[in-house]
């Protein structure tokens, strides 16, 4: 069973920075499209940043220029560097990825369980 485990969340003051990590379990062979999403209670989950085919990145308008997504293919890990954080960035952040694992012959989509980011004003 593939697992995506997020870490790096926490409490930070407005203007501060955090770096989130998403590590895939060891039975992962390859990761295709990968992204970070966030959700505030009572609202829909929204995309924050993604790395798509060809290594291209795209970002939500609200985080463009402040957040940066990157990946380490050798470690099967994805990062989200978050700078100039604002109180409205407070949410649970989830990792999502299309993963090829030893258990299945094709790419499957997985979600992590999330990590809470709280930005105080």
List keywords for this structure.
single chain, 121 residues, mainly beta, 4-stranded antiparallel sheet, elongated
Could you write a compact summary of the structure shown?
The chain is mainly beta and about 120 residues long.
Could you explain how this protein is built, in words?
The mean pLDDT is 95. The strands form two sheets. Strands 2, 4, 5, 6, 9, 10 and 11 form a seven-stranded mixed sheet that branches. A four-stranded antiparallel sheet has the order 1-3-8-7, with no helix packed on it. The chain starts with a strand and ends with a strand. The chain is built from no helices and eleven strands. It has strands at residues 4-7, 10-13, 18-24, 28-39, 46-51, 57-59, 67-72, 77-82, 91-101, 108-111, 115-120. It is elongated, with a radius of gyration of 14 Å. With 121 residues, it is an all-beta fold. Strand 4 and strand 5 form a beta hairpin. Helix content is 0%, strand content 57%.
Compute the average pLDDT. 95
How would a crystallographer describe the biggest sheet?
Answer: 7 strands, mixed
Anisotropy-based shape = elongated
Rg is: 14 Å
Low-confidence blocks of residues: none
Helix content: under 10%
Structural class: mainly beta
The total beta strand count reads 11
Q: Count of helices?
A: 0
What is the secondary structure topology, with strand pairs?
Blueprint: E1 4-7, E2 10-13, E3 18-24, E4 28-39, E5 46-51, E6 57-59, E7 67-72, E8 77-82, E9 91-101, E10 108-111, E11 115-120
Parallel strand pairs: 2-11
Antiparallel strand pairs: 1-3, 3-8, 4-5, 4-9, 5-6, 7-8, 9-10, 9-11
């Amino acid at each position: 069973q593939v697992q995506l485990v997020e870490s790096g969340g926490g409490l930070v003051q407005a203007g501060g920075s955090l770096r989130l990590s998403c590590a895939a379990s060891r039975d992962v062979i390859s990761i295709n499209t990968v992204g970070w999403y966030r959700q505030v209670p009572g609202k829909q989950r929204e995309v924050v940043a993604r790395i798509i085919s060809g290594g291209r990145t795209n970002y939500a308008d609200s985080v463009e220029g402040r957040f940066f997504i990157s990946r380490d293919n050798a470690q099967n890990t994805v990062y989200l560097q978050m700078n100039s954080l604002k109180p409205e960035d407070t949410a649970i952040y989830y990792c999502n990825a299309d993963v090829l694992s030893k258990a299945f012959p094709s790419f499957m989509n997985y979600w992590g369980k999330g990590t809470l980011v709280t930005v105080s004003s």
